[in-house]
UniProtKB/TrEMBL annotation:
InterPro entries: AAA+_ATPase, ABC_transporter-like_ATP-bd, ABC_transporter-like_CS, ABC_transporter_ATP-bind, P-loop_NTPase. Keywords: ATP-binding, Cell membrane, Membrane, Nucleotide-binding, Transport. Belongs to the ABC transporter superfamily. It comes from the Bacteria. This is NitT/TauT family transport system ATP-binding protein. CDD domains: ABC_NrtD_SsuB_transporters. One of its GO terms (molecular function) is ATP binding. It comes from Pigmentiphaga kullae. Residues 6-252 form the ABC transporter domain.
Length: 287
């Protein structure tokens, strides 16, 4: 069991307008883990991501990230000497600054986040540009560093946004449906790239997705949430060998997992808070 890196303890989150998004939710994630959050629309998945990013504070309960209270300006109450965790963020619709090149957009976290910020604009500028270029090449955008955002397709912008999320070597990657707006082929290509990057660097990843095949392909754990107010209903370990391939994603065990998740979420949507019966693997039923 890996050391706890993210901990939501008895978290309740009520938005200003009165919506109760999370109600006494617990979640514990180990360092280097790859966790997917799935569940009915509006159940509070993005809310969890925002709490972990420190963009929201819980109404009650605690959110600890890397030994610190998430979003606390000063040191949190847990360990005042613990350094802030470097976080990379990528969302469904990547926002790029139109007046900057793609390379400059990718380099933005290096301008903002320590320890890189101290050297930005000085001796390391060239080194940082090379770091951005290397990532762009890894995601198939070699030669596009000098282009402006409006010269790239949606899929290319999404690749660039992944580079921006990764350029500062984040210990924690928060991904909110980062492949949701892409066509199937591009999406599957980016799954493979994402998996390679995770295997190489092993950041802790929290991925929000509606695509159950995506969750089963990428994650080590899949947490299924109830409908709003969200709680973790089921916590599944995904132990398919890595690296996983697209062919693997059509294997009977894989299809069974996806089908079980689909049924679990269908139950959650209708508020039936009990686990559905296990289904047989598809292959067995076809035979
Ligand atoms: N800023 C806000 N103010 C008020 N209510 C909000 C706010 N953000 C989200 N909500 C509400 O909180 C609930 C949870 O929202 P959240 O975005 O976390 O759900 P989600 O599971 O990520 O949804 P989806 O899968 O549709 O993206 C929803 O009912 C939503 O309408």
């Amino acid at each position: 069991m890996t050391r706890s890196f993210i901990e939501l303890a008895d978290v309740t989150l009520r938005y200003g307008g009165g919506t109760l998004a999370l109600d006494h939710t617990d979640l514990d994630i180990g360092q280097g883990d790859f966790v997917a959050l799935v569940g009915p629309s509006g159940c509070g998945k993005s809310t969890i991501l925002k709490l972990v990013a420190g963009l929201l504070r819980p109404s009650s309960g605690g959110v600890i990230v890397g030994g610190r209270e998430a979003g606390a300006k000063g040191a949190g109450p847990v360990d005042p000497h613990t350094p802030r965790v470097r976080i990379g963020l990528a969302f469904q619709n990547p926002t790029m600054l139109p007046w900057l090149t793609i390379r400059e957009n990718v380099m933005i976290p290096l301008k903002i986040v320590q320890p890189f910020r101290a050297d930005y604009g000085r001796k390391k500028r060239g080194e940082f540009a090379e770091r951005a270029e290397a990532l762009l090449e890894q995601v198939g955008l070699k030669g596009f560093g000098d282009k402006r955002p409006w010269q790239l397709s949606g899929g290319m912008l999404q690749r660039a946004s992944l580079c921006r999320a990764l350029v500062h070597d984040p210990q924690l990657l928060l991904l909110d449906e980062p492949f949701g707006a892409l066509d199937q082929f591009t999406r599957e290509e980016l799954w493979a790239i994402m998996q390679d990057l995770w295997i190489a660097k092993r950041p802790t990843v929290l991925l929000v997705t509606h695509d159950l095949r995506e969750s089963a392909y990428l994650a080590n754990r899949i947490c299924v949430m109830s409908s709003r107010p969200g709680r973790i209903l089921e916590d599944r370990t995904v132990d398919f060998a890595r690296p996983r391939t697209l062919e693997d994603s059509y294997a009977p065990e894989f299809a069974t997992l996806v089908q079980e998740l689909r049924m679990r979420i269908a139950h959650a949507r209708t508020e039936q808070d009990t686990a559905p019966a296990k289904i047989e693997p598809l292959a067995r039923r076809v035979a």
